[in-house]
Amino acid sequence: MSTAARARAAMTEPDAASPVPPAAAHAGPPILAVEALSKEFGGVHAIEDLSFTVSRGRIHSIIGPNGAGKTTLFNLVTGVYTPSAGRVLFDGQPVSGLAPYKLAARGMSRTFQNLQIFFNMSAIENVMVGRHLHLDRRLLPALFRFPSLVRKDREAKERAAELMREVGLGRYIDAESAAMPYGALKRLEIARALAAEPVLLLLDEPAAGLNATESREIDELIKLVAGRGVTIILVEHDMKMVMGISDHILALNYGRKLAEGTPAEVAANPDVVAAYLGTLD
Amino acid sequence: MLGRVPVLVGLAAVIAVLPLVLTNNFLLNVAIIAGFNAVVCVGLNLLIGYAGQISLGHAAFFGLGAYVSAVLVGTHGWPPLPALLAGAAFVGVLAFAVAKPILRLKGHYLAMATLGIGIIISIVLRTETDITGGPDGMVVVPFEVFGIEVAGESMWYWVVGALLLLAVWLSLNLIESPAGRAMRALHGSEVAAETLGVDTTGYKVMVFVLSAVLASVMGSLFAHYLGFITPSAGDFFKSIELVTMVVFGGMASTLGAVVGAVILTVLPQFLTAFQDYQHMVLGAILMFTMVFMPRGLLPTLEGLITARRRA
Fold it and tell me: DSSP readout, A218-253?
């Protein structure tokens, strides 16, 4: 069997196990639309003239070899970077150039490829920061400990503990984040992102560095979240996971769109196989 | 870690019992100055320890508060309380105006910018002789509010003790609130905090202004307490002293800031033989702390106790 054919077989194989009931699709504009987006870093085009849309309540994956621009795309969508050209529409509204915290207030949440845990805080406090937008954020009520603030804070703590149990971190509720193992921290980021009650959740390599069992658990978790109507955009190198859970895949290479479609379509696309493994001749 | 209530009760008990041991005015005076430093350090610790932003010019806000009070009361005949509030408002507005541009800086750059601001303010205090009296300083009348004059070491002790308790209470309240968690989160990871909806710039400015205003209020009272004020109250060495107190006592520990301020105020009084080398000793303590207990005195002790309990 040729290398390319083997790769194709590996990518297509888990497809049989894929059918995930698509979560209730809502009417209205696509939750996310990217239009002719470009990002340049000192002459290097990390993302070039990229357009695609993401419909509601599905699992959308972005794949591509290392350096294809996946994380850059995440940073552009979540407002961490400002695009060099083009625009991003979230829920029909142009959002390019908005600060990340304003995008978060509109219902966008994310996790990070290299962990961005608040190591100076306990595990549950990390998740409670995720509740930030739902709590009293003013200075004076905080300084003087207004009863309403204390009550909502207590509720937030309960909700955070509940979320930690949901993502399988029940035994870390009283832990310091700095003392937790890598796999648990990956979940902690997911719990923290979910605490914000996002409508769109972007997961940047949630399974990276995890073993097969842990990966499968993350897999289940993502399906569970998507099942509740949260739209998910997933960047992941674990092809088995991507092919298994995605409703739609966008393949990138050198910052450009290589292919788009269902897992089966993308896996069968010769350009995608070539980008991952190189051509034979 | 100690909870809010034990910290407050413990501190109140120490403040209440201490006068039994402080049998003369010299000892009371040392305790009062330690109290002034402690309150300023509680505020500075919110900025440095919790929000992770350095300020090497914080004494300037203390000095400005002192001088606004001294000038308004002494030269313009204002009553002390409105003068104190005017000083706090002035420092608040100034801190707000400089915070936005400088808090975009990180690490060394922020350190340099705050150092620069501190030095500029301290030069103004020293050279605007017509207003501030220059290096000779100014005489300040006693503090008086609602017809009651705060005078005598004993009365000042209780006032400063009450203020310290209030500052610690406010600080503990803040760090266990959404705003406080937001400011600790931006210390942990600015980008993660932002994507969770935390206006990181807004909270940095907020905590910078808060700690500057607290320093200003204490500066005003300090001027009234001492009865005179000189530019050295707001100079670079004073700023470094405050940072050393926070780092030594324990960053991100409210009680640590108090302990650090108290130890480093009291120590020089009993090491009078080293008077000429005071700044060298301060530097040595800072180096020693960074090398052997980078988390500071109190968090290190807490860590040791927890470790022993588990063993």
Answer: HHHHHHHHHHTT-EEEEE-S-HHHHHHH-SEEEEEE
Pick from A249, A223, A247: nearest CA to A235: A249
Q: pLDDT tens across B59-108, in order?
A: 999 999 999 999 999 888 899 999 999 999 999 999 999 988 888 777 77
For residue B134, what pLDDT is reported?
80
Domain B28-267+278-303 class, CATH top level = mainly alpha
**Contact between A139 and B206 using a beta-carbon 8 Å cutoff:** yes
Would an 8 Å CB–CB cutoff place A89 in contact with chain B? no
Domain extent at residue A74: 1-107+199-281
The residue among A173, A196, A190, A219 whose CA lies nearest residue A112 is A190
| pTM across the whole model | 0.89
In the predicted structure, residue B2 carries a pLDDT above the cut 80? no
Give the nearest chain B residue to A131 (CA atoms).
B196
**Is B184 an interface residue toward A (CB < 8 Å)?**
yes
Is A101 in contact with B182 (Cβ distance < 8 A)? no
Query: Does residue A43 lie in a domain region?
Result: yes
Contact B170 A143 (CB under 8 A): yes
Label the pairing between strands B143-145 and B148-150. antiparallel
Distance (Å) of CA B157 to CA B23, B45, B141, B145, B242:
12, 23, 18, 16, 20
A128 in any annotated domain: yes
| Phi-psi category of residue B177: left, alpha or beta, with phi > 0 → left and psi -120 to 50 → alpha | beta
**Residue A244, both tokens:** 């298994």
- CA-to-CA distance for A46 and B223, rounded, in angstroms? 58
Q: Is there a single domain that holds both residue A274 and residue A171?
A: no
- Measure CA A129 to chain center: 18
* A281 and A155, same domain (yes or no): no
Count CA atoms within 13 Å of residue B126 on its CB side: 13
A186 and B CB contact within 8 Å: no
ipTM score assigned to the predicted complex? 0.89
Same domain, A153 and A243: no
Q: What is the dihedral of CA B205, B207, B212, B218, to 10 degrees?
A: 160
Give the model confidence (pLDDT) of A6-60 as tens digits.
444 444 444 333 333 444 444 567 999 999 999 999 888 899 999 999 999 889 9
A60 domain residue, yes or no? yes
Residue B165 CA to residue B161 CA, distance in Å, equals 6
- What span, in angstroms and rounded, lies between the C-alpha atoms of A76 and B232? 49
In a domain, residue A114? The reply is no
